[in-house]
Structures
1.
Amino acid sequence: MNGSRRNNKNNNEEKKENMDRWLVTYADLITLLMIFFVLMYTMSQVDVKKYKAVVNSISIVLTGQAISVLDTQGPSLAEGLSGQQIPEGEGEIPANQGQLQEVKNLIQEFIETQDLELGSGETGGKTTKLGEYIVVYEQERGLVISFKDTLLFASGSDELTPQARSIIRQVGEALKDLPNYIRVEGHTDNLPIHTARFPSNWELSVLRASNVVHVLQDEGGIPPDRLSIIGYGEYRPLVPNEDDLSRAMNRRVDIVILKQKYDYFEPPSIE
């Protein structure tokens, strides 16, 4: 009888011990699940500004154009990013857009009214309007001031003519009060060049852009930490290089005043 009671007592203790083990395991599982869902929630909180910056960066690299968000339709983990463009704000005017428009109007007036003296030779003694050699237009990335290479350089050279230096200086003076980053881009046609100074069109495009930057800084008064240089060689043509006319269109130097929303693409200054 006593033995039977002892056996029952032992069985009850084993059952209670097994029950305790099960509860501990269950509690551990619930804790892990809670941690998992907290992590998932934290990861789902996308910084929209950084997300848009990444998307724009990828788009510029792949297509040469920036977009606000993904063009494709479909669901998204980030609220408000389901393939629809995110507006800057209802009726909101982008930062310093008014300044950019004033600069655009000022430069447009300058190139439309300024007379350009043509060089000696067949066209010696003649004048034309500067607007035939400079085009101003807007892109998603900002305001572009595009110079035909014949306005700035002799054929196959990177040295600016005195007249070109004067024009770039005046453009720089119009831009110096803008807080925007300014990128100077050199472009060539697809005709090969191979000299000691220019082993290829890469070097020619970079040095042409570099000389324009020096004038913008030294004579136009633009702070150097707002300037950058890119040489694209022959690889960013406006039109296919099919004849002399199309090649002339592709030989250019572009001054690009970047919109301020692209500031986070530029390396920060330590000063």
2.
Amino acid sequence: MIELILSQGRIADRKNGTIEGALLTAKAIEQTYGVTAMSHGIPEPAKIDDWTDSLAQADATLRGLSETVESGLKDGKLPVMVANTCSASLATLPIVARELPDAVVLWIDAHGDFNTPDTTDSGYLGGMVVAAACGLWDSGHGSGLKAEQVLIVGGRDIDPQEARLLDEHRVRVLPPQPYLMDKVISNVGNRPVWIHIDWDVLEPGYIPADYTVPGGLLPDDIRLLLSRLAPQIRGLEIAEYHAGNDTSGKRDPVVEILKTISPVLGQQTIG
């Protein structure tokens, strides 16, 4: 059964459009699958600030997301979080570590998000999420995730110091390459899976996102992976769709999103 969760508070958003993107996506899921989203946070304008300020501003939103994900897992539901930014995962990954200690976390993202306050050049909270969950720095929202549980899929824009930390902690990174999805399946094995998707992992032009990088995956790559892993998936979170930033005019991004994640949503009963 789906537990649809919507993030609507600013969580380090540096550009307007991601909060709206999350709302549009959640509404489409509601209409398509007959489920009602539990929403957390009040929209506020984007701004460029240091991680210390954005973390403090997001505190209530993050705590609400954390509580809802935890209760969903304990009730045997499948949490599906539609988030504005990857920073929302500060709330979810520590819960995954506690409630699903054997799970593999597939961080499907063009970036590693494994910086710390000591290594970040940008001061951007979203670039430090996985490192916080793995205990490299204290976000105030928990940790407990083991580095060996994490598999970064599609990563191809990683800072030098971040790469050093990933190597030091033996976090597996699989950049776009031939037979990528077969390699992911091999790494996962029979273990349960928690999936995070930042839409910048895609080749630019499919789903508008900030911080896009050429040489990405295709939506069908992800859809096929989700289809193959569907029985093992224990949670899904999607982030960083920037509404109003679509310049291609070729496709409806929300339709593309729902098509991509349909193997997860389509197998669930609705309560």
3.
Amino acid sequence: MATRHSADSTAPPMCVVALLKRERARALVRAAFPRRRAHVHAAKSAADVEEYLIKELVDVVIIDGGAGDDAQRLIARAEEFPSLPFVLITTLLPADAPLVARAADAGVADILVEGVDDSVARELVLRRAFSSRFERALSQPPAMLHLETPLQIAVWQSVVRRAGRPVRTDQLAKELSVSREHLSRSFAVGQAPTLKRVIDLVRVLAAAELSKNAGYDVRDVAQVLGFASSSHLSSTTQRLVGARASSLSRLRAVDLLERFGQAAFGDPAAS
């Protein structure tokens, strides 16, 4: 049975939304993010980028400093999305200095300099991408979940790599080369929660992180994470951690895990 998987073997490709006007900027992004490693959505305008942000889970927004007013508009919105890094591509010519200064003040996560950062662009962006940071923060299951077997740990890591995106039991079983029945039966052993509760917990943790972005409301968070509706997100949150979805922005991951543990301890069906 395969119980060890690299991040690249099961993780969905990184979602990059890029507003690129100059060929030099497009070439940098093409080299840094080949198709097999990332889904790069080429936006035609700032409005396109804003539409992508509320349609699916975006890992990073890349802005060509040569995009004129559209670049200015997106830079001004960067502080509304602290969990989703906005990255500026610039030449750092003297004429670009005011734009770079505004980007720094607005909370742009990083600045890539053409001809200087080309070879390390992917590494710099990947380090800040939403999915990457989410995976690092939850690389090992919290002790209170009692996920201790190799299978349980492999499942946890596979779910976390999706950063809150929906996943089915049969998908996980296929990745781990086991049957769906074996996975469901072998996961919830000892004091461990059921697989469904663990998947839902990770999705609520992702929703909480996204809710801290002022540019999102509950409906937006539900949409980008693939919940059927904001009501579905709210009912899931209430069931797992006894809180409303509207309060997620004020709760830390440790708070949510504590609430989940309290609910599981008081509900025999949860373990």
4.
Amino acid sequence: MTDGSGSVITTASPQSSKRRDNSARQKQILDVLLETGSATIEGLAERFGVSRMTIHRDSHALVQQGLIDKLHGSIVLRNKVTTQKTVNFRRSRATDLKDAIIQRAVSLIQPEQVLVLDDSTTVAAMLPLLPALAPLTIITNAVGVIQALSPYPNLKLICLGGDYNPPRNAFFGLVCEQAAQSLRANMMFLSTSIIHNATAFQNDQDVVKVKRIMMDMADQCVLLVDSTKFRKGGLHRLASLSEFDHVLTDSHLKPSIAKALAQEDVNLEICT
């Protein structure tokens, strides 16, 4: 197919689009299970706006990968330690899409700034690039951030303690919230579970509480979200996208979504 100028226009086949949708939804089902441990088929169907049969097919695919078990009417993580390596699984998904987002995010940082980093796998992809920008002060509730950056003496690390959440490898709860309230920062970098109707959602209320307080710490907040997270669903409201100084996503975002967000005064950046 060509446009009026003779340029070739390529379109994805319905089959390839469907496979991408299925893969993205299965990743998000795993995200839910990593946060909650289990979920009902009916609840997942309602959350993602699909039929129960579709969720059954997704569940079967995840069973085949050895990640979950199906029970009567529900699904559970097969082994939290194994699927936690899904912090390996999650990190490996959409890696190519995240690269451009990460490069743009890092370009916003100046030496000697104080940064807040959440426990998301998207933000974790920034970590190898931070030592080159030292000196920096890093505030985080994520154990993985501390472990990754501790070898670098020019990076001052402040860990927010609290109740340890093994699946997320991070701290939450009242102690974490109180510690965050006493600190200030230049920028926060974070991600979220789902974007729907210009709103960021998380699947765990405790995560929302800590992220909201961490956002309030910072002069600017930068949201990093690959295009697979723009879909129906979401349980707990984190924030309107208009509350973020930058919303960074990749070039696979549907043009109709980008147009709608522009009308909502969202500072959206398509990273290429």
